[in-house]
Structure formats: C-alpha cells, structure tokens
Amino acid sequence: MRETIEFRIAERDARMHLDSGLGVSLGGSIRKVVLPVDDARVGRIAQLHRAYGERGDAFFLSWNLHRSYTEKELRAAELLNLIVRARFEPTGAMCGTTYDESSTCRHCGAGARQASDLVLDTRRIPKSKDIAQTIAGEVVVSSRFATAFRESGLRGAELRPVLHQGRGKPLSSDWLQLIVTSKPRSLSTRTVAGNNPFDLDADDAFRCPLGHIAGLNQISELYVERASLDDADVAVTDKLFGDRRGELRPEPRLLISPRFLDALVAMNARGYALEAAHFV
Fold first, then answer.
1. Domain boundaries in the chain?
2. How confident is the model over 96-136, as pLDDT tens digits?
3. How many other C-beta atoms lie within 10 A of the C-beta of residue 68?
4. DSSP of the chain, one letter per residue?
5. Each residue's pLDDT tens digit, 235-249
6. 180-220 per-position pLDDT tens digit
7. Please, which residues bridge with residue 67 across strands?
8. Are 144 and 267 a contacting pair, CB within 8 Å?
9. Are 145 and 130 a contacting pair, CB within 8 Å?
C-alpha cells in the first residue's frame, strides 16, 4: 500500500515557507502539494500549521489522505472499505424525504431514522456513475448495479425505490437506495480518527460522549473486531465519522466482502474507491 497526503496551501504562504519547486499552482492563488506520508516535509508542514494555529490561522486550507493498493493487496484483504467517490446535492431532506428525529442524540446529532422513501432531484445524480451519495450520506445505485447485486446473491442490504422530486407528486426513477440491513461491525480502537493527521482531537471536541462518533475524520485504515463478523457481504461500522452541520450528518463507513468486490469488478462499476480494512 502506498499512502500519500495532499495539501492545498495559499500560494503566498507556500512561497514564504516551501521550496518553489514543491507542488503545483492551481490558478495562481492555491498550491497543491502531494507527498508520501513519511516524507520529512510533511513534518515541516505540520510544524507550520501548528505555528499558524497559535495565532488563529491555518497554514494548509485542506488535506486529503490517499491510499493506493495493488490488485494483489486488495484481493488478499478479508474485508474492504467501500468509499463512494461521487457526491451530490440537494439532500433527501431538502427534496421532501421524511426523517424521524425523535431518537437523535442530543450530543452529536446521530440517530435520525429515514421514515419515507428517498426523494431526490435525480437529475443531480452523476449519470456516469453506478454508485453515488448525497452530502448527507444517502447512497444510491444504478439499475445496472442493482441487477449485479441481485444476480450475485449478495447479502446484508436492501435496494429500495428512489423517487424523483417532480413539480407535483414524486415520480418513480431508475435509481435505487442502498439500505444496509446487516448487523454493524464493531470498530476497533486501533482505528485512528481526528481533526486532521496532526490533531487527533485530544479534547474529544468532535467525539460523542455516548460513543456514537469515532471522530471528525478517519485518519487510518479501518480496524474491525473479528467477533462482529457474520455472513453479510455489506455492513456498516458501528461508529460514525463527521459532524451534524446543516445538511451534513455523521456517517458510518461501508464495509464489503471479497464476494462484493468480485461483483463490482465483473460489472466494471463506476463511482467508488476501495481501501483494505483489517480484522483484529
């Protein structure tokens, strides 16, 4: 596995503190810098970010960890983290989907229950993808994906109708919602979460005191308790990542079996990435 970290840094700050040949300029105002996570220059960027933070500023504007695997590494994994790359809005709630908020956690905002079919402006779903997700975490799949799921006999999820928000009543569509019905997998404490790779939220500002949220962002690969394994081909983690802000909701991570991977490869599915996950 090869792991890199991407930073977006204001060009004026990059010119002041970084080598001129490091990274690429994006429009003249932002510099994109991609480095292996163990590169000494990552430590330098972390130091600068902490120094900027002490005066109420930030050295990097955003960050993103990238993990790339060989086909052999993915095929050797007992469990995989399915990452939905294609995101879109508006969310279901903005289009008329009903949610029951009565069981929502007062600390972290997790626990709302979808109480109606998913209603979306399906024109906004990326048409070139087979799996996509709203910014609120609602996952939809194409009819092609649904056919492969059913024909492969995959277990652990239901496919329910997605309605299109029309001018009158909601209309049927070709998209379906992936609803995971299997027992959640127990996330191990070996999974690292935090605000960013250099701030693991020692004060637990973004962790739920009742244990619903592991942290604001996933930092490491996922580690799952083997005792929570069953025969489902798709499951979610028992703990969530993120924060409840406006339409954004804390989300679990999707975990799939090698059988599910076989189905994705066979249909040449589009719109996702994979990371290895690990049993402990």
1. 2-68
2. 999 999 999 999 999 999 999 999 999 999 999 999 999 99
3. 11
4. -EEEEEEEEEHHHHHHHS-TTSSEEETTTEEEEEEETT-HHHHHHHHHHHHHHHTT--SEEEEEEEEE--HHHHHH-SEEEEEE--EE-S-HHHHT--EE-TT--TTT----EE-S-EEE-GGGS-TT-SEEEETT--EEE-HHHHHHHHHTT--SEEEEEEEE--SSS-EEEEEEEEEE-SPPBPBPTTS-EESBTTB--TT-TTS-TTS-EEESEE-S--EE-GGG--S-SEEEBSSEES--BTTB--B--EEE-HHHHHHHHHHT--SEEEEEEEE-
5. 999 999 999 999 999
6. 999 999 999 999 999 999 999 999 999 999 999 999 999 99
7. 3
8. yes
9. yes
Q: Which residues of 180-218 are buried (b: 16+ CB within 10 A; e: fewer)?
A: bebeebbbbeebbbbbbbbbeeeeeebbbeeebbbbbbb
CATH topology of domain 2-68: Alpha-Beta Plaits (3.30.70)
Beta carbons within 8 Å of 199's beta carbon, 6+ residues apart: none
pTM here is 0.94
In this structure, which long-range contacts are made by residues 39-42, counting pairs with CB atoms below 8 Å and at least 24 apart in sequence? 42/5
